[in-house]
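Suppose a colleague, Dr. K., hands you the sequence of a protein chain of 88 amino acids and asks what its three-dimensional shape might be. Before reaching for any lab equipment, you can write down a predicted structure in token form. Begin with the sequence itself:
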Amino acid sequence: MTERKTYSISVRLRRTVTEEAFVSVPLDAEITDPTPDKGGQFHVDGNKLMKAAVRLGYGPRYAVVPGTRTDRRTSPNSESPSSKPASK
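The predicted structure, expressed as tokens, is then:
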């Protein structure tokens, strides 16, 4: 009995899982605007706050909320040869 040959093509995929997590960002000089307003109050700089939150989110102590995976996606990797148009 002859064995039938089969062929395959390898495709590189990118799998992304999105989770919700909560981090506590310390209210300190790192995230506040260094210049007080006219009333002498210091305010949180939103851009600095988000950068600090993302940095903390990569640490080992961030809290992932159980059961809150909001998205799971599989797509071709943009560097995969199959995603490039064929040349004519």
